[in-house]
Amino acid sequence: MNGRRWGIVAALALAGGLLWGSRPSPEPSYQGKPASYWATRALDQTPFPLPASTDPFQTMGVAAAPAIVAALREKNSWRHKPIYARFHAQLPSLLQRRLPPPLPPNDSGFGHDSGFGLAFLAGRVFQRFGVGLDPLLPSLVSDRNVLVRRAAAHLLVASPADARVASKLVFAALRDRDPIVRLFAVAAARRADESAIPLLIQNLSNQDRVRSNEVIYLRAAAADQLGLWGARATSAVPQLRQLSGDLDEETRTRAMVALLRIERDHAMLNPLLNELRRAGNSQIRVRIIGALGELGPDAREAAPALVDIWKRKSEYLSDPTDRMATYLSESIAKSLKQIAPDVAAREGIE
Question: How is the chain split among helix, strand and coil, in percent rounded to 5?
Fold first, then answer.
């Protein structure tokens, strides 16, 4: 009987030891406040500039990463959804008291309501952990919560993660069902090899069957990335030709620039010059001018248009004091010297 009693005691002691060993690690703290406090505070900010409330994470280290993940999951709670607030307001007062009250929507003027800004900010906070976050990245990229996956995908764009690890995770994120995750993954696609090209081509089509801003940005970004692969992305030409007639100016011009980089076809010069003259913003002009410069002397017929824009820069800027005025001047000067250095010298463009 004593042997049996001791056996039970030993089993209980072993179970207790296992439970004790498996308990979660204590939450790190900074200035006497737990990581969860700093995580909530950081994610209530806007991403530009990176708020000072993210500094504690550099001190606490990667042990504070779960607090960011938990805060993101809470931000994605149904209590933050505007539809729940409307539903709650229609209920009889008795039911309103029994149900949890709605929480403010996640909107700080940087797309927080769609989760884009939150993911961007959380990704920047994750960067505070450096390579220490590498072991956690696979689980973050495959997390069930979409905000966590978005933050992890954004992290892939600038993370110092091991190249092989980053490449595998980019492939996973490019296949994600969420367009914002894929948008961040597209921006990180250069960290993968050429086998990413078919996935980039897939993202040229509207897989989500909606016309949201996120999907428009995704298609434009995918076109951009394909252009950077040059002749190795010739399989994307049919889809890019289709997008070159898109109604959205950003998508259309990025597709045309991609075609120019892939095919180096002079037939694309005139359509691009037309877009250059009527572009709705200077960022698009700078992108087109840069692509023309890449052709070098082969784009010499574009020189008169570049000189014309140089002379009438103020007409092409909604605000001449805008920082884009400098970028526009620099891009014209650089491209013109690549295309026709004699013309640049004659016009005094340095």
Answer: 75, 0, 25
Phi and psi at residue 71, to the nearest 5°: -65, -40
Query: End-to-end distance of the chain based on CA atoms, in angstroms?
Result: 98
Residue 80 carries which DSSP code?
A: G
Domain boundaries, the chain: 34-156, 277-350
Residue with tokens 């959804």: 81
Distances, alpha carbon 273 to alpha carbons 174, 278, 279, 285, 309, in Å = 33, 9, 10, 10, 11
Alpha helix ranges (H) inside 203-340: 213-228, 237-243, 249-263, 269-278, 282-295, 303-311, 324-339
Give tens-digit pLDDT for 141-173.
Answer: 999 998 899 999 988 887 666 777 788 889 999
Pull the structure tokens for residue 61. 């280290």
Cβ atoms within 10 A of the Cβ of 187, count? 19
Contact present, 313 and 282 (Cβ < 8 Å):
no
Give the residue ranges of the chain where pLDDT is below 50: 1, 9, 15, 17-23, 107-113
Spatial separation of the C-alpha atoms in residues 9 and 11, rounded to whole Å: 5
Q: What would the pLDDT profile of 265-299 be if each residue is shown by its tens digit?
A: 888 888 999 998 888 788 888 899 999 999 899 88
Using CB atoms within 10 Å of the CB of residue 49, give its burial: 0 to 12 exposed, 13 to 18 middle, 19+ buried. Answer: exposed
| DSSP 8-state class, residue 115 | T
Alpha carbons 345 and 176: distance in angstroms, whole number: 50
Angle at 285 between CA 280 and CA 287, to 5 degrees: 125
Identify the H or E element spanning 10. Answer: helix 2-22
Q: What are the tokens at 203?
A: 């993202």
Question: Rounded to two decimals, what is the model's pTM?
Answer: 0.77
